[in-house]
Amino acid sequence: MTLSFYVHIPYCVKRCGYCDFNTYTPNELRAGGDIASVSEGYVDLLIEEVNLIPESGPIPTIFFGGGTPTLMEPMDLGRVLSQLENKFGFADGCEITIEANPDSVTLEKLEALHSIGINRISFGMQSANSHVLKVLDRTHNPENVAKAIDWAKSAGFAEISVDLIYGTPGESVEDWSSTVDTALSLPITHISAYALIVEEGTKLGSQVKRGEVVMPDDDLTADKYLIADEKFHSAGFDWYEVSNWAKPGSECRHNIGYWKGVNWWGLGPGAHSHMDGRRWWNVKHPNSYRDRLQEGESPMLGEEFLTDTEKESERILLEIRIRDGIGISSLDSEQRSRLLPFLAAGHLSNEWWQEGRVILTQSGRLLADQIVREILL
Ligand SMILES: C[S@@+](CC[C@H](N)C(=O)[O-])C[C@H]1O[C@@H](n2cnc3c(N)ncnc32)[C@H](O)[C@@H]1O
Ligand code: SF4
Questions:
Q1: CA 144 to CA 328: how far, in whole Å?
Q2: Domain spanning 309-375, CATH class
Q3: pLDDT per residue over 35-86, tens digit each?
Q4: pTM score > 0.90 for this model?
Q5: CA distances from 157 to 111, 162, 200, 243 (A)
Q6: Cα→Cα distances 317→246, 310, 352, Å
Q7: Of 91, 121, 306, 333, which is the most exposed, with the fewest CB atoms less than 10 Å away?
């Protein structure tokens, strides 16, 4: 048995208006503190959690996510990696990713991150338009992205990804096209593009509720997906999951693992883990996480065991979104017949259906959630 690892870094300099991730600013944690002081000792806690994990085989993938992992000292992240390597070993070609906010890196930092073994970096670019970044309440300006990516390349990163967001209030189709073109002009190998989700309780959520900003029409947002897909495809980036495109061979193996239901351990506050149908999650706040580990206790807050039916629903929900799709033989005859209208309308690939697989076409990718609901009725 092998485990992939997700390592959560729950700190950001400032909270972006749309984000409800489990992340904290120094102000939220301790008035007047800076990131270095609020995160002091955090890596020791992650190492304590590693010590609680049962033995397993060499690690295939590791992902530092957040929050903003690039706010941590590379040497400290290196201590987490050494602990994981000493305890489990790394599989050949172990993929080690870090998420980065373009504002939180320098050439020296990127060189240091590369030298500790991190071999893949994903930048939160979001948009190339200042007015869109302003609505998203981001700290970075568009120029920082190109600079950060050039540094990443010079530092030796061969696998560089950007995250984009489309469907922001005030974003025109031209704005989005220019964001896609700008991303494609950068030396990257991978792109994630997500439609903006308005989360309740966020600053953006309140602005939308009060009518201060207006969310664009769903049809316009769907058009933006199609524009991006065409442009990515023409530039040699193929879709391999509904929101992810890569040059051949540059797909993110860590995320493919999630979609295929592998076993992974999430380290850090609020992190989720999965082993053979058992799922559990850690206490959410960094202070509760610290208290648990300092008492020598597990940080686990809750757990659930999936029934066979739940495992099957989860498999379908995740696999329909990836390029390999679902084997038709794994569906019962009623589920298959409920898919026939989608096949007839061109939302499922006819060619692949003949080969025994349910694979979304471009128009089908826009209807992924509806198609899943139909299969799982
Ligand atoms: C942890 S962040 C990436 C690293 C870094 N914190 C940053 O934002 O630059 C993960 C990604 O999730 C996406 N994301 C977060 N909240 C979202 C939302 N409400 N709707 C759509 N995408 C969202 C953003 O594209 C973001 O880059
Ligand atoms: S920097 Fe990233 S994790 Fe932090 S608030 Fe913004 S989107 Fe969320």
A1: 46
A2: mainly alpha
A3: 898 899 999 999 999 999 999 999 999 999 999 999 999 999 999 999 999 9
A4: yes
A5: 9, 13, 36, 23
A6: 22, 10, 19
A7: 333
pLDDT at 236 over 80: yes
What CATH architecture is 4-259?
A: Alpha-Beta Barrel (3.20)
For 195, the enclosing helix (H) or strand (E) is strand 190-195
Q: Alpha-carbon distance 365 to 347, whole Å?
A: 8
Q: What angle do CA 24, 46, 95 make, to 5 degrees?
A: 95
Nearest protein Cα to ligand 2, atom 2: 67
Cα 215 from Cα 100, distance rounded (Å): 27
Mutational test site, ligand 2, from 14, 15, 27, 123, max ligand atoms within 8 Å of CB = 15
Taking the alpha carbons of 90, 95, 100, 106 in that order, is the dihedral positive or negative? positive
Q: What angle do CA 346, 348, 353 make, to 5 degrees?
A: 115
Q: Is 21 in the pocket of ligand 2 (CB under 6 A)?
A: yes
- Please report, rounded to a whole number, the percentage of residues in the chain having pLDDT higher than 90: 94
Backbone angles phi, psi at 252, to 5 degrees: -80, 110
Q: Structure tokens of 8? A: 């959560």
Task: Please name which ligand lies nearest the alpha carbon of 165.
Answer: 1
**Do the beta carbons of residue 180 and residue 207 sit within 8 Å?**
no
Structural domain boundaries in the chain: 4-259, 309-375
Taking the centre of ligand 1 as the mean of its atom positions, its distance from the CA of residue 112, in whole angstroms, is 24
Kindly give the number of the ligand 1 atom that is closest to the alpha carbon of 195: 21
**Pocket lining: 103 vs ligand 1, CB cutoff 6 Å:** no
